[in-house]
Amino acid sequence: MKNSLKTSYVRLRQPRLEGEEYLAVVDEFMEAVHARWPKAIVQFEDFQMKWAFETLQRYRSRFCMFNDDVQGTAGVALAGLLGAVRAQGRPLADFTKQKIVVVGAGSAGIGVLNMAKHAMLRMPGTHKIGELGEGHNQFWVLDKDGLITKSRKDLDPAVARFARGYGPEEVEDLHEGASLVEVVKKVKPHVLLGLSGVGGIFNEEVLKAMKESDSPCPAIFAMSNPTTKAECTPEDVFKHVGENAVFASGSPFSNVTLSNGRKGYANQANNMYLFPGIGLGALLSGARHISDGMLHAAAECLASYITDDAIRKGILFPSISSIRHITARVGAAVARAAVDEDLAEGCPDLDPRDLRSMSESDTVDYVARKMWYPVYSPLVNDK
């Protein structure tokens, strides 16, 4: 006879804390964790947008922490976006010329935009005077009220820097609140990126409009999950956009058999490609905090993992069976970035100077060896 288990949940029947009261509770938690485990890495998950960015900015320079929704999703999406440039047969430097329509202006969407923007600013040659300054905007962002422009009232500061304005980069006759179909038809983007949480929003009309993209290999990223929230399916994309399209999603889908017998790949852009390696690299390097440079190193490492041959087939992300090797590679990239930025304090069996002197392959080997075993006790009294 099988045992029947019931799970009960205790709920506090009170309004949620807001403002300083809310932050005081999180402050207390972070300070307690740091006092008990000073080398612990805290991963924030599923925070509302208003708190996701607030807590990230509040703690990131004081503790070793990151927000997976904002930074993990952004890193995986950036790796996919860089892969899409390669799939289009263009050099990575052309990422600065990609036209990207983003549907969803929550914490994940804005996190992706921030990381993509920073990646563009890091591209070779963009440091030159007049090239790709902060005013450069290759993004068209929509929320439930349509296209976001500078005429929108009460814009969140995190969103405002990506609002469309006026000038030579603007598309004629695109107004505040324009619909997704209208934006896609007029912008003809290289990439359509969904982080909306609205299942099926990339409908037949939208996808047929993407067929007129300025790219020979339009990229469609349906990043929302679970599967019911995905903006579209790979079958929809290869049917309505064309068999030369590139597809990625946040939820798992099966590959599609195309008319010529080839596979249409349903790439899953899963955060698990990055967050274990980010934590591992920060831990093994003894990083004081997790910087944008460390996160970019993680994303670029994942993007470079895929071979040119795989990219030509439409594969943007590696097989899940490779996850341990990927984690070692990402962890090594994060650790080396921490050393390069003088953020690494080392750990008992490795000084930062030793880590700096290692070759890239030696660093990967070191991280792989340490993956399953603690390098030290995190307790404050243990040496």
UniProtKB/TrEMBL annotation:
<dbReference type="InterPro" id="IPR001891">
    <property type="entry name" value="Malic_OxRdtase"/>
</dbReference>
<dbReference type="Pfam" id="PF00390">
    <property type="entry name" value="malic"/>
</dbReference>
<dbReference type="InterPro" id="IPR012302">
    <property type="entry name" value="Malic_NAD-bd"/>
</dbReference>
<dbReference type="Pfam" id="PF03949">
    <property type="entry name" value="Malic_M"/>
</dbReference>
<dbReference type="InterPro" id="IPR046346">
    <property type="entry name" value="Aminoacid_DH-like_N_sf"/>
</dbReference>
<feature type="binding site">
    <location>
        <position position="270"/>
    </location>
    <ligand>
        <name>(S)-malate</name>
    </ligand>
</feature>
<dbReference type="GO" id="GO:0051287">
    <property type="term" value="F:NAD binding"/>
</dbReference>
<keyword id="KW-0560">Oxidoreductase</keyword>
<dbReference type="GO" id="GO:0004470">
    <property type="term" value="F:malic enzyme activity"/>
</dbReference>
<dbReference type="InterPro" id="IPR037062">
    <property type="entry name" value="Malic_N_dom_sf"/>
</dbReference>
<comment type="similarity">
    <text>Belongs to the malic enzymes family.</text>
</comment>
<feature type="binding site">
    <location>
        <position position="46"/>
    </location>
    <ligand>
        <name>a divalent metal cation</name>
    </ligand>
</feature>
<protein>
    <recommendedName>
        <fullName>Malic enzyme</fullName>
    </recommendedName>
</protein>
<feature type="binding site">
    <location>
        <position position="225"/>
    </location>
    <ligand>
        <name>(S)-malate</name>
    </ligand>
</feature>
<dbReference type="InterPro" id="IPR012301">
    <property type="entry name" value="Malic_N_dom"/>
</dbReference>
<dbReference type="GO" id="GO:0046872">
    <property type="term" value="F:metal ion binding"/>
</dbReference>
<keyword id="KW-0479">Metal-binding</keyword>
<feature type="domain" description="Malic enzyme NAD-binding">
    <location>
        <begin position="70"/>
        <end position="339"/>
    </location>
</feature>
<dbReference type="InterPro" id="IPR015884">
    <property type="entry name" value="Malic_enzyme_CS"/>
</dbReference>
<feature type="binding site">
    <location>
        <position position="45"/>
    </location>
    <ligand>
        <name>a divalent metal cation</name>
    </ligand>
</feature>
<dbReference type="GO" id="GO:0016616">
    <property type="term" value="F:oxidoreductase activity, acting on the CH-OH group of donors, NAD or NADP as acceptor"/>
</dbReference>
<dbReference type="GO" id="GO:0006108">
    <property type="term" value="P:malate metabolic process"/>
</dbReference>
<dbReference type="InterPro" id="IPR036291">
    <property type="entry name" value="NAD(P)-bd_dom_sf"/>
</dbReference>
<feature type="binding site">
    <location>
        <position position="69"/>
    </location>
    <ligand>
        <name>a divalent metal cation</name>
    </ligand>
</feature>
